[in-house]
């Protein structure tokens, strides 16, 4: 269970349970209210990835550096990073362009029993100033950035990352092989059904998000990270069509 699950305001995700007019998915107040339930039931391995972000942060956070959670939403990965940072001289910054998400993230940060200050910014992550970074997290965030803007964002992160620092990148991916894409998609949908989503909910959510969330292949992600300036890129977790990567700058 992630630390954000302690909020008394958490609601069950029923946003797509009844027929609705088609519209693109937005991280608005309605999504913010159900987000912990939505992502837990929609993203295979999410409840494993969050605590491992703490473990990875502990390994790569450096004293007198900045750590960033870009696309922090309600703060699950921000809090994981916070608990993985052992240096009081570190600064931790969470960034999201949704006011509804930032408001609830502030609530979760206040509930957390850790002394490291967290600075929250409501802004577009492409516009966030990044400097002196040792750990940066993009936890299911890059997939919502327009594809033509992804290289420049990753280059900015790599340029800001200190030697020995790292980027944690979690993404939904697609596969070149059509058969594998079909199998992995079916397994993902079965995961959702096992978590209580109906066929209508799965179908309507997919229609709402398919023009907003643009997945790419694992090879495309790896090559872009290397082109951006990271020296090593490895997959540390995969479940169906969801992966988390670690991109490292050489010492």
TrEMBL record:
GO terms for molecular function: carboxyl- or carbamoyltransferase activity; methyltransferase activity; S-adenosyl-L-methionine binding. SUPFAM superfamilies: S-adenosyl-L-methionine-dependent methyltransferases. Residues 69-165 form the Methyltransferase domain. Keywords: Methyltransferase, S-adenosyl-L-methionine, Transferase. One of its GO terms (biological process) is tRNA wobble uridine modification. S-adenosyl-L-methionine binds at residues 46, 71-73, 96-97, 139, 206. The keyword Transcription regulation does not apply. Transmembrane segments: none annotated. Pfam families: Methyltransf_25. The keyword S-adenosyl-L-methionine applies. InterPro entries: CmoA, Methyltransf_25, SAM-dependent_MTases_sf. CDD domains: AdoMet_MTases. Its EC number is 2.1.3.-. It comes from the Bacteria. Catalyzes the conversion of S-adenosyl-L-methionine (SAM) to carboxy-S-adenosyl-L-methionine (Cx-SAM). Belongs to the class I-like SAM-binding methyltransferase superfamily. Cx-SAM synthase family. This is Carboxy-S-adenosyl-L-methionine synthase. It comes from Marinobacter antarcticus. The lineage of its organism: Bacteria, Pseudomonadati, Pseudomonadota, Gammaproteobacteria, Pseudomonadales. The gene is cmoA.
